[in-house]
Amino acid sequence: MCGIVGIVSTDPVNQQIYDSLLLLQHRGQDSTGIATADSSSIFHIAKAKGQVREAFRTRDMRALLGNMGLGHVRYATKGAAEREEEAQPFYVNAPYGIILVHNGNLTNTRELSTDLFSIDRRHVNSASDTEMLLNVLATELQGQIKGLELDPDQVFEAVAQVHERVEGSYAVIAMIAGYGLLAFRDPFGIRPLILGRRLTEAGKEEWIVASESLVLENGDYEIVRDVAPGEAIFITLDGEMISRQCAKSPVLVPCSFEYVYLARPDSIMNGISVYEARLRMGDRLAGTVEQHMPLGDIDVVMPIPDSSRPAAMQVAQKLGIEYREGFFKNRYVGRTFIMPGQAQRRKSVRQKLNAMGTEFAGKNILIVDDSIVRGTTSKEIVEMARAAGANKVTFSSAAPPVRFPHVYGINMPSRSELIAHGRKIPEIAAELGADHMIFQEVDDLQAAITEGTSIERLDMSCFTGEYVTGSVTPEYLEWVERTQLS
Ligand SMILES: O=P(O)(O)OC[C@H]1O[C@H](OP(=O)(O)OP(=O)(O)O)[C@H](O)[C@@H]1O
Ligand SMILES: NC(=O)CC[C@H](N)C(=O)O
Ligand SMILES: [Mg+2]
User: Fold this and answer.
1) What pLDDT, in 10s, does the model give residues 185-239?
2) Core-most of 158, 333, 336, 443, by most CB within 10 Å?
3) What is its EC number (predicted)?
4) Is residue 233 located within the same domain as residue 285?
């Protein structure tokens, strides 16, 4: 998953983009990039491996001139996390000059790379699906242009063509040199994108689009709305905002994993507070715990910092059992799940979490995590709890078992690495060394996220194996397993 932001302002945007990326760091730690456009329509670009604080030097920031810009933090799903040439944004010089950032993952890259080469005669110089997406947009925009000038209708028509050609998930922000900032979301709105606005003292409008609402809040923007699935928004250099629905049959099917793990709890996504959704996950998980074991068998409820805290708190409250924190986190180690490579993830769990003996000795512990994917965290946690003297360890997950690959922007491409794939729940418990395992039911997760909204469907593919875009066939999943990152 990645984090993206784009701003059209009346002042230089370099620092605002940097600050926004820092707020989106939890969505990607592999690499980061910023691009700005100055008044002569020159793009200035800085990108590097690593996290925002270590990637940009003062001299990079000084060189990022202009009142319009965009930024990206990457969590690689195609290509390789360590390749600097796949860091975003990506740039093409024609038509006009376009620079683009993308959150999501395309599922028809094999067809796209053939078509881009043999029909469009375009060269894609990396393994990144984002570079393909940019080249499709550039080709379609080129096809729309009649004279020298570009008008927003042509931009919207090009986005409509992108929707026809590209499959998978994509929330996109692009700058077109000399014209403005374009943002669009795939026809299912799988990945998030939200629009904000603020007024200068002189009454001029400034605009922002970003992955999460907390960025808007932090910059004192008012939330206008989520970008609708399939919709494109074009903001001119003068700050005029124009929007149009560009997809034939858009329907909102947002990714459930945003609410489970990825997004910050203080964000509101598709009208749903992530924090409240996590509390409701806790409520429902408590119900399942009650059905599965006598409550007298649990002395304390304990979260795995950070993401499971709201759910764990609610489980404790609902069950009327004491909530205790026994695992402490080294705040200088990032999120482990989004790190590249299993060796690094395993090492980092140990560096990140430490069990405090007095909270465990002789107690029956109900541990709550938000999700169990590869089991990297849970395996270490169970060992730590036992070493710290726990009596019985019950491990629970606020999400159902992850049994299928996620192909829409979360890097879990291969079934064999998923601890729940092909295993029944007692077998997962045995594998992790826990006395019991309790998972959220699929229907409960769906209800916890969508309660009180008109959203009828979520992307729950990693729990159910049902993929919302047509192109995800068993043959495709096998190909992904053979060729993608792990
Ligand atoms: O089963 P696994 O493959 O270990 O993946 C699941 C774990 O990874 C995530 O934590 P992470 O450390 O990334 O972030 P957090 O601090 O936000 O909880 C998530 O919250 C689970 O704890
Ligand atoms: N997680 C994402 O959104 C990744 C974006 C893009 N697929 C990349 O690998 O760079
Ligand atoms: Mg965690």
Assistant:
1) 999 999 999 999 999 999 999 999 999 999 999 999 999 999 999 999 999 999 9
2) 158
3) 2.4.2.14
4) no
- Domain membership of residue 142 (yes or no) is yes
Whether residue 372 has its Cβ less than 6 Å from ligand 1: yes
Q: What is the CATH number of the domain that holds 424?
A: 3.40.50.2020
How far is ligand 1, taken at its centre, from the CA of residue 429, in Å? 18
Taking the C-alpha atoms of residue 209 and residue 12, their distance in angstroms, rounded to an integer, is 16
Give CA–CA dist 345/376, Å, rounded. 7
Q: How far is CA 202 from CA 16, 105, 197, 242, in A?
A: 19, 41, 14, 21
Q: Which residue out of 2, 246, 255, 462 is catalytically annotated? A: 2
Q: Is residue 166 part of a domain?
A: yes
Peptide bond into 297 cis (omega under 30): no
Measure the CA–CA gap between 260 and 285, rounded to whole angstroms. Answer: 13
Peptide bond into 89 cis (omega under 30): yes
The token duo for 410 is 């979360």
Instruction: Report the distance separating Cα 323 and Cα 439, nearest Å.
Output: 19
**Ligand 2 atom nearest 86 alpha carbon:** 10
User: Per the confidence metrics, is the pTM higher than 0.90?
Assistant: yes
> Are 195 and 325 in a shared domain?
no
Residue 485: pLDDT band with limits 50, 70, 90: low
> What whole-number distance in Å separates Cα of residue 179 and Cα of residue 151?
9
| Interval between CA 1 and ligand 2 midpoint (Å) | 6
What ipTM did this prediction achieve? Answer: 0.96
pLDDT score recorded for residue 392 = 96
Model pLDDT for residues 30-50, shown as the tens digit of each residue: 999 999 999 999 999 999 999
- 305: preceding bond cis by omega (within 30 degrees): no
Chain Cα centroid distance, residue 435: 33
> Does residue 140 share a domain with residue 61?
yes
Q: How many CA atoms lie within 13 A of 9 on its CB side?
A: 24
Alpha carbon 325 to its chain's center: 27
Nearest CA to ligand 2 atom 10: 76
Alpha-carbon distance of 308 to 304, in angstroms, equals: 6
Q: Which of 49, 64, 50, 74 is nearest to 18 (CA)?
A: 64
Residues 467, 458 contacting (CB under 8 angstroms)? no
List the structure tokens of 216. Answer: 């808007």
